[in-house]
Amino acid sequence: MKLTPEELEELKALEAEEKQRLEEEKAASLRQHLEALRTSKRLSSKFGKPGHDFVVLETKVGNFVVRKPKDVDLDALSSDAPEGDRAQLETLAVNVVVEPDEITLRKLMAENPGLAPAITTAAVKLAKVTLEEEAKK
Question: Which of 29, 50, 66, 114 could, after both became Cys, cross-link 40 (CB 3.0–4.6 A)?
């Protein structure tokens, strides 16, 4: 079935809008990545080696500076709790996030259910790097 001239015009307009939206998303993503790299550089003197002692986690709701968890932070994850216990994940997230502040973090976690698991995953990966390095010694 052939499109009418009006439908073709509408198609072109919608495709142009979609192209513009994608370009804006790409530019925003690049800006966010640039800010993550700047933050990583700025904090390396305070927190240590990026990717080892801390990481800047880039998410759709912003960047989060996650430091390597201490043993006591990891102890908060009870082995007898159900997998993915939200309260435990949020507690660990609050303990390891350096930026943004706790109030902002709690608000964002309440609005974005996947944020706490993403943060805790990043923290556990940092702890795993240290364990692997110690095992090599």
Answer: 50
Which tokens is 55 given? 């990481």
The CA distance from 75 to 83, in Å, is: 15
Answer whether 65's CB lies under 8 Å from 99's CB.
yes
Q: What angle do CA 129, 133, 137 make, to 5 degrees?
A: 170
The proportion of the chain whose per-residue pLDDT surpasses 70, expressed as a percent, equals 88
Give the whole-angstrom CA distance, residue 63 versus residue 75. Answer: 25
Between CA 84 and CA 34 the distance in angstroms is 31
pLDDT in tens, 92-120: 999 999 999 999 999 999 999 999 999 99
Nearest-angstrom CA–CA distance, 32 and 24: 12
Give this prediction's pTM: 0.80
Angle, CA of 58, 71 and 63, to the nearest 5°: 10
Q: Is there a contact between 109 and 64 (Cβ–Cβ < 8 Å)?
A: no
Residue recorded with tokens 């944020």: 115
